[in-house]
Amino acid sequence: MANKLENQTIWITGASSGVGEGIAKVFHREGANIIISARREAELERVKADCDSGAGGVKVVPFDITDARQREAAAGQVLADNTRLDGLVNNAGIGQRALVKDTHLDVDRRVMEVDYFAPIALTKLVLPRMMEQKSGQLIVTSSVAGKHGMPFHSAYCAAKHALHGYFDTLRIELLEYNIQVMLLVIAGIRSNVAEHALLGDGSEYGQDDWGSDVGISAEECGERVVEAMLAGEYEPVISIDQAREPMELKDKDPEAFIQRMAGLMKWMKE
Question: Which of 43, 91, 172, 196 is the most exposed place for a label (fewest CB within 10 A)?
């Protein structure tokens, strides 16, 4: 039986840990040739070494996605090395853990730069190739925070909401080019994203509120992404129930949703 992503070439950012690492391992296992990127080259090499069960190749392209020169150089390398690019997974991102009143404006800008401007800039660099070949898949890691507000996550929510507006529009514009656009609405995936989340002064939070044994594994997330790709889904929700329920509640009972989020805020303050 053929692997689900056999002979596809897919570029994954933020692949040195967490969701990106899980997606990389599953995509490679399913036959894809993967290009993995992040800032930490040593961690990318570790991920590459762990991708030992698939037939495809693994190429490491380290760069800082917020650095325009590095971003352009990385895209140039990937496009020069591959005659086709079947997919781009915009997964690189940063979290936040601070109330609005305690968050410096430069932290708001930093979160928007990493979580919104950087992925759309990278998309613009590879889009001409996909339009020329009239095929491709743009996958963007969003969150339930892209669907509703959350205390302590104002800038993160803003960036994820912005991704939905941008890529929902891009999906429409790319219909004639047979390019699929998918936003991953995820929550509760086991990763170190909370540890690196920014506090109001720009320092890292350094801990995980939920515990390392709670949630969905990154590879389980990757398997669900493959299923969603093959089914042509627009917004697969890959989430634990505790995070899915408020998202559904927001439309059904807005007041109950606000009260639930207020309870979450109280818990997070303690």
Answer: 172
Query: What string of pLDDT tens digits covers the 270 residues of the chain?
Result: 468 999 999 999 999 999 999 999 999 999 999 999 999 999 999 999 999 888 899 999 999 999 999 999 999 999 999 999 999 999 999 999 999 999 999 999 999 999 999 999 999 999 999 999 999 999 999 999 999 999 999 999 999 999 999 999 999 999 999 999 999 999 999 888 888 999 999 999 988 766 566 789 999 999 999 999 999 999 999 999 999 999 999 999 999 999 999 999 999 997
The closest alpha carbon to 165, from 178, 180, 146, belongs to 146
Whole-number Å distance between alpha carbons of 194 and 209: 8
The residues, ordered by sequence, that sit 6+ positions from 49 with a Cβ below 8 Å of its Cβ are none
Q: For the chain, report the end-to-end CA distance as a whole number of angstroms.
A: 52
Contact present, 249 and 197 (Cβ < 8 Å): no
Maximum distance among all Cα pairs of the chain, rounded to whole angstroms: 55
Tokens coding 32? 């894809």
Q: What global pTM score does this model have?
A: 0.95
Residue 156: active-site member: yes
**List of domains in the chain:** 9-243 (3.40.50.720)
